[in-house]
Structure formats: structure tokens, C-alpha cells
Amino acid sequence: MNNDSEYRHDPHPDIKVHVQSEYLADQSNPDESRYVFAYHVRITNTGRQTARLLTRHWIIMDGEARIQEVRGDGVVGEQPQLAPGSSYEYSSGAVLETPVGSMHGSYGMIDEEGQRFEAPIPAFTLAIPRLLH
Questions:
Q1: Whether the Cβ atoms of residue 8 and residue 116 lie closer than 8 Å to each other
Q2: Model confidence at 1, in pLDDT bands (50, 70, 90)?
Q3: What are the CA-CA distances from residue 15 to residues 26, 30, 39, 66, 79 (Å)?
Q4: E strand or H helix at 111
Q5: How far is CA 7 from the centre of its chain?
Q6: 26 phi, psi to nearest 5 deg
Q7: Which residue pairs, CB below 8 angstroms and at least 24 apart, start in 128-132?
Q8: Over the stretch 85-133, which tens digit does the pLDDT of each residue have?
Q9: So what's the pLDDT on residue 4?
């Protein structure tokens, strides 16, 4: 069952998401088309209400435009609550069959009044070093 219809889809100005990615050469094997990337996420609540992250939705695209979608509860096994002015940070990873790709998505959130909303995750690039200029 898809619960996305429960969330407001307009961008929420009070939740800011910043992502930084890195290539993990020691876990990758280009000869087998296996490129491993880590991404480090910081979610900041710049608003006046506490908000809890309930779900995640990632769209991962490799260099040949193959798309994987990942949906699930929370992030790294948690559903963090962000008080006004606070941040939550975590790291995770993705495996691609190409040396370059991108990710974007959204977090399903709920505020202290019970309103559900989506916090967009801006697109970011996954690429081995010195591949893109």
C-alpha cells in the first residue's frame, strides 16, 4: 500500500537537506561494473515546530539512465525527531553499475500538529573522482 497521498507534496521551507557523496574505491570493482558510493546527509529543522522523519523515498539513476527506487521507514533504522534549530546526520551508501549517477528524493515528515509533509532531497551526483569536470 502506498502512503504517499497522505503527505503534502509542496516543498516544506523549514526542513533543509544537504548531501555530500564520496566514491569508495576500496569497495568498488570497475572490472565487474561495481561502483560503490557513500553519501552523508544532514537534515536541519529551521522552523518553529518539532518534526519527525517517518519515511524515505530515493530515486537512484546510473549513467545509463537505469532507475532504482528505494522506499522505506526512517533512515538507518531510525525515525529521528528534529527540534527547532537542530540537525540530524547519517551516512549510507549506493552501488551503481556505472562510474557516474545521481540521486534525489524526499523524506516523509510529520510535525507536532500531526500534519504530514514531504521534505525534498535535492539531486546530487555520484561520480568517481576526476571523471566529471
A1: yes
A2: very low
A3: 34, 37, 18, 29, 15
A4: strand 100-111
A5: 17
A6: -70, -20
A7: 128/23, 128/25, 128/28, 128/35, 128/99, 128/100, 129/23, 131/99, 131/100, 132/100
A8: 999 999 999 999 999 999 999 999 999 999 999 999 999 999 999 865 5
A9: 46
Q: Which fold has domain 4-127?
A: Immunoglobulin-like (2.60.40)
Q: Cα(66)–Cα(88) distance, rounded to whole angstroms?
A: 30
CA distance 71 to 9: 16
- Can you tell me the distance from the alpha carbon of 81 to that of 79, in angstroms, rounded to the nearest whole number? 7
The pTM for the full model equals 0.87
Q: Are 44 and 12 in contact (CB under 8 A)?
A: no
First-residue to last-residue Cα distance in the chain: 42
Q: Where are the domains of the chain?
A: 4-127
